[in-house]
Specification:
- This protein is α+β, with helices and mostly antiparallel strands.
- The protein folds into two domains: 2-218, Jelly Rolls, CATH 2.60.120.10; 229-336, Homeodomain-like (Arc Repressor Mutant, subunit A, Orthogonal Bundle), CATH 1.10.10.60.
- The chain contains twelve helices and 13 strands.
- An eight-stranded antiparallel sheet has the order 2-3-4-5-12-7-10-13. A five-stranded mixed sheet has the order 1-6-11-8-9.
- It starts with a strand and ends with a helix.
Length: 337
Amino acid sequence: MTTSLTWQEYCDLFQEADKKELGFDVSDELDTVWQYDGRIAKGQTREVRLREGIVLEIGKVQNRDRVLLNVPEQNLSLQWHFMLSGKQQNIYSSSHSQSSLELGAGQYVLFGKGVEQITEDWPDTESCLEVTIHVQPEVLCSFVSDSSGELPKIFHHLVQPRESGRYKRAGEIPPMAIAVLQQILQCSYKGLTKRMLLEGKATELMALILEEEEAAFQQGELKKSLLQPDQLDRIHYAKEILLKNLVNPPSLTELSRQAGTCEYNLKRGFKEVFGTTVFGYLRDRRLEKAQALLLEQKMSVASVAQAVGYDSRASFTTAFKRKYGVSPKAYQISARK
């Protein structure tokens, strides 16, 4: 079942939570927690306004049904968005273009400033944990401006209007950033200590992703997309082929043939559209399915590994631990508690 919601209908699903009952900082009026009312989803969203121009948002939600959320066109700030578990697919529309982006566990997206209308597609029963840092352009400038007080050229694309729509680049969350995200989620301090720690960790995350952005710029990866609409359709078709054949996927050559493109365009297209390689996309979808199977508690680790296409339990364990930070067995045991 699919539930389609307007932005106002979505906002009406929330009610302000009892922070004391949930163990949050009741003394901080700039730290707000909202709970879903349970009709469509369960979970909560927390917003911490760290300083003028920086908001830290932590969302943890599990939908009862697939949800399509239609967010009206608005002028959006810079965003550092981290998906720690779950997945979503969004369609971004501006006056001149439309693009889509699929995000899975262990990935991030850096968004530039701009005006867009968004359709968010959240799958049912998927438990999602995400952290987002909303930043106004003047705050970014205060952090990284050069000696003349200007924003360096390598970051101009983050704040300047673009006919092709709001700038966005996806990638795998760096290991150092994962550690910082865990520190944010586990922060038990209150008052001034909490605010200073969270602001420090938020700016550390920003710096780690901007470092990757600078490297991408220097390597010439931030050029305007050369993919035509028919090529984008072929990339999405190739994705669907992979999703239907997770256990026995076709080779790159065969996948290219089935999708009606060449290997070069296939590899470049996956990197541009999904922020990862063809193999990386396949691996992430396999591990997400494995995570869901482990949560069901009906199969052994070896059976789960085989069910998602791994011939070797050792290879599966290594890949799972690299993505989620724990072994499959430890994850399965913790889920029983």
